[in-house]
Design goal:
The chain has 13 helices and 24 strands. By secondary structure, it is an alpha+beta fold. It has a domain of 66 residues. Strand 18 and strand 19 form a beta hairpin. The protein is globular.
């Protein structure tokens, strides 16, 4: 049984600073980091670091003025006792930053550092010190092993951040990657807030967030969580956003959860969200703010590419309301089948439908080509939405009669969706399945570069393993879908004990090797030159601070090394 660790005010986080040759800097003999929140002090939102490369990273905190003003002193050292300080400077909040209950975020880009080196940092306001954070630059040259923890979909009111706590307790990750939906925009009574009262995890503000102050306040709420603080202090982060950092099902010109008639201009709301995002997270400033994508190198071991699939180029989502025939129509009627196929070919398959623009396609092509030419075994794409081809099972024939009857009597979305599945439809048009031509463009880029990919994906609140193929059947790589930290599975709205929706998806789809449609957790990756091990960890609960953790599955991918695309196998 894993229990919450007792948080103290002692101030120092003890860790070993030694860097073993060829190993990730942050995973060397690392102690368990457990930074303390100080509810009445100036640094109650913790510390964080992020966006590392070989010689630089961003450090972050928020300071609540207690008479000493908002200027803070930053110290960066190569040892946890701060005997060897390599950087010190005074930081102030950016002009125009909005305070939240007196708290102002500050951050700095620290440059000129050594590759593959662990560093320790802290902030001081008057006589008060922040918790100590540990971070590291990315390695350059030979790397034997590198550890990544991947997360997605962390809804504060729906449960405790036990996944963050478990990873922080592991204490040996070189990098944390968050794949989006780091926070949610809904107010009390909205999505994911059913247990907020019982768990004492109320959203702040209580209403849906729209203004820059609203988004900043929601970020501050998340930053107050001690489990999230612990993981942020233990290793550098790379974050990409999905939709909920702005609004549900966001695209370049709007969102499903945005009504211009009552909520104003979409671009104004988007920029409010992105300004708060950049203020409250340890990320480099993007220009323009919505263009957060790029690639980083992990020595001679891997290239990590992160993409932006929401705000720069995404075409409006196709909803199933665009379905060309009544849902109750006979799926065996030839005219109905022809209409559905035409809809798939001409509407879903419209070549003008985009997830990413030409700039990102070019960036991905360059990064993959350079990685292959350098002989690196791994090219990892951090991506928001599911890339594998997933057809919805026919829920009208594969679910028990009692469940079909229950859904029919309930009516609404679940029943209408179940009816549509009899006609053969993609599971999720918000994923790459809703943009198949753009997916083929990406796959052609990978194939033309002579490489293969490992894709890390969030969004679905499910665990997935997908065997990726292009339209001609060529194997492109492996996708690991990372389940949610807390956010509910779509199937939690269907009261169906004993019905394994994940198994149905596996049976229906050749690309789907595993789908756990229920459990919360995160994914651990261990990279070496010989193999990539993915441990998809699931939690016993997010409704209690006592929990257990176990792997849903342990998977091994062996690198292609110039041969056919790497194969994935389950080893545990």
């Amino acid at each position: 049984m894993v229990k919450r660790l007792e948080l103290t005010r002692r101030g120092a986080l003890l860790a070993a600073a030694g860097v073993g040759a060829g190993l990730g800097a942050c995973s060397q003999e690392a102690a368990r980091f457990d930074p303390f929140p100080v509810p009445d002090g100036p640094f109650k939102h913790g510390v964080a670091s992020g966006d590392p490369d070989q010689t630089s990273f961003v450090v972050w905190t928020a300071v609540t003025s207690v008479g000493a003003g908002y200027a803070v002193e930053l110290e960066l050292a190569t040892d946890e006792t701060f005997n060897t300080i390599v950087e010190s400077r005074t930081l102030t909040p950016r002009d125009g930053v909005i305070p939240v209950d007196g708290a102002m975020p500050v951050k700095a880009l620290i440059e000129g550092l050594e590759p593959g080196r662990a560093y320790f940092y802290r902030f001081r306001s008057g006589d008060a010190f922040s918790p100590v954070g540990r971070t590291c630059t990315l390695p350059d040259g030979p790397v034997e092993r590198f550890r990544i923890a991947a997360f997605s979909c962390s809804n504060y009111p729906f449960g405790f951040f036990n996944a963050y706590r478990d990873a922080a307790d592991q204490g040996d990750f070189d990098l944390v990657v968050h794949l989006g939906d780091y926070l949610y925009e809904y107010g009390y009574g909205g999505y994911g807030t059913a247990d907020a009262d019982r768990l004492s995890r109320m959203p702040d503000p209580m209403h849906e967030i729209l203004t820059e102050e609203d988004y900043a306040r929601r970020h501050a709420l998340y930053c107050s969580d001690p489990d999230l603080q612990a993981l942020k202090a233990s290793a550098p982060w790379i974050l990409i956003w999905d939709d909920h950092e702005t609004a549900n099902d966001a695209w370049s010109q709007g969102a499903e959860n945005h009504d211009p008639e009552t909520e104003g201009d979409w671009i104004t709301r988007r920029d409010n969200a992105l300004r708060a995002y950049h203020d409250w997270l340890p990320v480099r400033e993007a220009e323009p703010l919505q263009a957060r994508h790029g690639a980083v190198e992990i020595g001679d071991l891997a290239t990590l590419i992160f993409v932006e699939t929401r705000l720069t180029a995404r075409t409006a989502e196709l909803t199933l309301e665009s379905f060309p025939i009544p849902v109750e129509a006979d799926p065996e009627d030839p005219e109905n089948r022809e209409a559905v196929q035409r809809w798939r070919d001409e509407v879903i398959g419209d070549p003008d439908r985009r997830l990413i623009d030409e700039n990102q396609h070019a960036m991905i092509a360059q990064a993959i080509s350079a990685s292959v030419e350098a002989g690196k075994p791994w090219r990892i794409i951090a991506n928001q939405v599911l890339m594998g081809r997933v057809e919805a099972p026919n829920y009208l024939t594969q679910t028990p009669l009692w469940l079909r009857t229950y859904m029919r009597l309930q009516g609404g979305f679940n029943w209408h969706f179940a009816q549509r599945t009899a006609h053969g439809v993609p599971m999720n048009l918000d994923s790459w399945d809703g943009f198949p031509v753009d997916r083929e463009r990406l796959y052609a880029t990978v194939r033309n570069a002579g490489g293969d990919i490992v894709v890390l994906t969030g969004d679905t609140h499910n665990t997935w393993v997908c065997d990726l193929h292009d339209g001609d059947g060529n194997r492109i790589g492996t996708e690991f879908g990372v389940t949610s930290v807390t956010s509910p599975s779509p199937f939690e709205t269907v009261n169906a004990p004993g019905v394994d929706f994940g198994q149905m998806a596996e049976d229906r789809n050749a690309e789907v090797l595993r789908n756990n449609a229920w459990d919360k957790g995160y994914t651990r990756l261990t990279l070496t030159h010989d193999e990539l091990i993915a441990e998809q960890m699931v939690l016993s609960t997010v409704k209690d601070r006592e929990f257990t953790t176990q792997p849903d599955g342990i998977w091994r991918v062996r690198p292609a090394n110039g041969g056919p695309a790497a194969q994935v196998e389950r080893i545990g």
